[in-house]
Amino acid sequence: MVLLPYLCIKDMAKKKIIRAEDITDKDILSLYERLLPLLYYNPEKLTPHSQLNKRLLEYVQYDFYHFVLNEANVVPSYHHFRMVFEDRKETNPENNMSHLHQLTFSSDNPDEIFDALIKHTYQSTIERKKIEVPDKPEYHYYELISRSEPKVMVGFFRFKNKEQDNGFTKNELLIFDKLAPYIFILFRSVLNPFFQTKEFQYFDAYTQICSNISHEYSLSVSESKILPEILLRFTNEEIAKRNFVSPATIKKHLRSIFKKTETKNRVDFIGKFFTSPDIY
Predict the structure, then answer these.
(1) What is the pLDDT along the chain (280 residues), one digit of tens a residue?
(2) Where do the domains of the chain lie, and which CATH numbers do they carry?
(3) 187 within 8 A of 148, measured Cβ to Cβ
(4) Radius of gyration for the alpha carbons in the chain, expressed in angstroms and rounded
(5) Residues 6 or more apart whose Cβ sits within 8 Å of residue 1
(6) pTM exceeds 0.85
């Protein structure tokens, strides 16, 4: 399972500058103290990455960040479907199904898939920010990557200031690098279990069915990408918005999918492939 959360921070508050060498073991411990209890007691249903984000902003100021968490031992298939989880606000995790996306790959190489995921989430993040903040099209960017399993990437963005250089300073990069090992541990220990909910497992099972359909009926990459969204009953307009294409393009893909799979419409498609446990 591959999870690509995306978190935007609207405002960057001014904070006292902290030097990398001044970060103590107590500061590191506070990272764990903020997140680890959520594994056992979380009545407010806080998202772990939003809590980690709040803590990181106490050390380095950035405008938004994205990350990739790539779980090992993924079942290989020709078209690799993966989940994309987006959280641009502190949403209720019970409603996360409305934020699920998926990606399609035609490679069995884990490193190639991870690199493709990093590239995709970066491009997707930029596309969304262009829509949300069109007057700030350029960014400073810094990336932390761990290729130990499960692989983790965290990328931090800061809007460029046209009047003066506001890029990440040497001290800020040192802070990122100093905190990186602990960030990776927290992502693996806290976020992985957090995403192993019934909703995510349910979705992952159906994306595997979609992968099988895609391979058997020779669907294109574009057609394969929207199969789970058909299952989740998104409208053509919603699917188009989520994939940065026009509704007319989605209609074209749907017609092609129904023709290749010998189904008449969405209801017929879902009935044929998702209501019988014996098909796949």
Answers:
(1) 444 444 444 444 445 678 999 999 888 988 888 888 877 777 887 777 778 888 888 899 898 888 887 755 444 433 333 334 443 344 444 444 334 455 666 666 778 888 888 888 888 888 888 888 899 999 999 999 999 888 889 899 999 998 899 999 999 999 999 999 999 988 888 766 655 555 555 556 666 777 788 888 998 888 888 887 787 677 899 888 877 889 999 999 999 999 999 999 988 888 888 765 444 4
(2) 2-195 (no CATH), 217-273 (1.10.10.10)
(3) no
(4) 20
(5) 71, 74, 82, 83, 195, 200, 204
(6) no
